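Lab meeting prep.
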Amino acid sequence: MRKLMMIATSAAMLMTLAPAEVQAKGCIRGAIGGAVVGHYAGKHAVAGAVAGCVAARAYYKHKANQQAHMHDMGPGQPHR
């Protein structure tokens, strides 16, 4: 119960640091996956949840920036 409370608190704290759409999608998915992996990798569920939240948030933020960049480019410009 204590670990679950720590995971929820960590996720809630990290959710206040970024835009809502990218943050919620990345943090919640990453925290769940990270907690499961951390639990099976030696009882480190809280550390796994925090790391998963940060990593997934960065991934989804990067994808959102790529989509915004592609949207800003005109039809005649080459894609990078």
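Slide two material, second protein:
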Amino acid sequence: MPAARPDTAPTIAPSPAGEARPASPKLDLALLAVSIGGISFSAPLISATAAPALAIAFWRNVMSVGVLGPYALLRHRAELRAIGRRPLLLAMAAGALLAVHFALWMPSLRMTSVASATALVTTTPLWTILLMRLFGTRAPRLVWLGTGVAFAGVLVLTGVDLSLSSRALLGDALALGAGLAASGYMLLGAEVRRTVSTTAYTLVCYATTSVVLLGVCLVAGAPMSGWPAGVWWQIALLMVAAQLLGHSLSNRVVRTLGPSITSTAILLETPGAALIAALWLGQWPPVAAYPAVVLILLGLVLVARGGRAR
């Protein structure tokens, strides 16, 4: 895969088939803000839903495919048939990484606090920077300083959770792994979106994610049904907020804003999800965790500033 560029100023590339050219950078930034708002509801909703985490991950993706599928087949059928082998394989690989992300992060919310799991999964920009460096993209010093500060916060936070329980520490490890998987998903998605429309890419990606998660659920023996109607409504709300408004809109803007800015904006999910969890679920993180979360957010802000300077 060619090295993805950490674009810091929106660039307009030739529009993929079937998709209009972006109206303006301001529109993409507004869509990104809506995306982060939707994603912020994800962790509290998962914690509040009385169903196995893996089953929730599977059904939210299946519902998304059910919503997007008819529209994609109606408006993008020709594009879907004409997708080349390389972008198709990359889109499927992105879907597999998204499945890994869900399979790790959603169970982590049952092991550690919403604040800890969210802060750790939003280290996606740090993993993105490291992966892009492997492909030859050099980052400014401020970006590496921010990376160091954020990882210091990760060490502090995992130390706090270790003092609570080994289960909380395992949840932290799963959340970190989920952040790493998300960075690969973001980079692959940015590459595919150079030539493929959001709708076509999203359908292939989510369909692949659903198939992989189905296999994971079957292997793990996770129950797939048998819950009250309220649980299904919660999963549907999760699909709309986090999947359609969250991930789909981030897929929409990643082509113009770039993977670095798009993934860095995820840092806003941490305070949003923690506030929602505290007010809705009464889930307040331990006092010692606050400095660690602040360090992580500070590091991510430095990464963002370094990216803009570049």
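Talking points for slide two:
The first helix runs from residue 25 to 40.
The chain has one domain: 25-309.
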